[in-house]
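lol ok so funny story. i was supposed to be doing the assay writeup but got distracted and ended up predicting the structure for this chain instead. priorities right. anyway since i did it might as well share w the group, maybe its usefull for someone
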Amino acid sequence: MQCIPIDFLSRTCYVQLMLEMSEVSQVVAKVVSASPAGPTLSRVLSAPTLDSAGEAALDVKIVLRNDTVDDVIVGALVDNISGIFRGLEASGEERFPILSYATEEELAQDDDPES
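and the output, tada:
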């Protein structure tokens, strides 16, 4: 087992047996794509983070296409949550996923230093 630091200054790390971020994104995308909300999915962003207790966690952002936001079935997004938890667990991931949703437009605004 190898300890991988979460960031440069952190003494917190995760064991390398956990999924790579690209694998986390693939699992989440597969779950969302198979649901009624699937056509709204643009991409999935994931990164290691810490939860409120300082434990290793996953920051998972589900990015929706701008043109489909009005078509999103809120219930389908909520149903995805349990599927995402089950999919990650079945893949061997032990870190808690902290989920959020955004549109491509919202991400672009977050990247804009003038906003």
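The first strand starts at residue 3 and ends at 5. The domain at 3-104 is CATH 3.30.70 (Alpha-Beta Plaits).
back to the writeup now i swear
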